[in-house]
């Protein structure tokens, strides 16, 4: 009899032990879940936004992805908008780069977009007139994307007077030129809709030293004292920082006081694309937008446990 009962007793004991361990693990499991919820999705994990075609150029549709705040009702709320442009050397890159940022800031209350743009091949670039670079067509499309965002503000539930733009590397360059250079407009776009913005999120913007060879893509030509407030992220070891330093020096000479440079010690170009710096820069961008009244409350991301942080560059000359 005991021999027959032994397997049943053993099973009961194992079940009891499993239940006890499960109960003990619940706090740890909940903690891990909270930690995961506080982390931004990676580029691979971030959900795709709702796809829209904002124009056609060179015979191809140009698309952007839109992200909306939870429960957003365009008929009842007009919230600030954010439009970001990916990097990739003006000839590569995808919408995936800023899906994580758009997803995060949409959950914080903004209507967000990440937009693609025309990029010329090497062969096409070589056929351009002397003095023109491949960057021009990128800027033209970036201007069109911003105008589309404003033109459709009512149906999207966006306040067209509170648009923020930005981007990474080449995308940061496009964001600044699309909003400061009065030229390079698509003839099909309505000039009644401007491309002005109220703030910039610039992730190591790529201002090339040789941009002066094409005056239409040279950021320094269009910088003004009243440039909209900007937060700018750079790694101290980024080779592209030299171009930024020239632009920043001009802003200081113009007595611009609304540009906030945040440095990541020892980091190189594109550092913001990976953890923990993705989280660090998103938190800093969140605080910057909150300071301008474009977001409310504290960031919902937890700072990295490993302690990485940004250092504010001196504001003086």
Give a verbal description of the structure:
With 317 residues, this protein is of the alpha/beta class. It has a single domain, classed as Alpha/Beta hydrolase fold, catalytic domain (Rossmann fold, 3-Layer(aba) Sandwich). The protein is built from eight helices and nine strands. It has a nine-stranded mixed β-sheet, sandwiched between helices. The longest helix has 37 residues. The relative contact order is 0.12. About 5% of the residues have low confidence.
Structural descriptors:
317 residues; alpha/beta; Rossmann fold; 9 strands; globular
Secondary structure layout:
Elements: H1 2-38, E1 50-57, E2 60-67, E3 79-85, H2 99-107, E4 111-115, H3 122-126, H4 135-151, H5 153-156, E5 158-168, H6 170-180, E6 199-203, E7 230-235, H7 241-253, E8 259-264, H8 277-291, E9 311-312
- Cα end-to-end separation: 91 Å
CATH architecture descriptor: 3-Layer(aba) Sandwich
- Could you say how many structural domains there are in total? 1
CATH 4th-level superfamily:
Alpha/Beta hydrolase fold, catalytic domain
User: Averaged pLDDT, please?
Assistant: 90
Global structural class:
alpha/beta
Rg: 24 Å
| CATH C-level class | Alpha Beta
Helix-strand sequence: HEEEHEHHHEHEEHEHE
Give the overall shape, derived from the CA principal axes: globular
* Spatial ordering of strands, largest sheet: 1-2-4-3-5-6-7-8-9
In a few lines, what is going on in this structure?
By secondary structure, the chain is α/β, with parallel strands linked by helices.
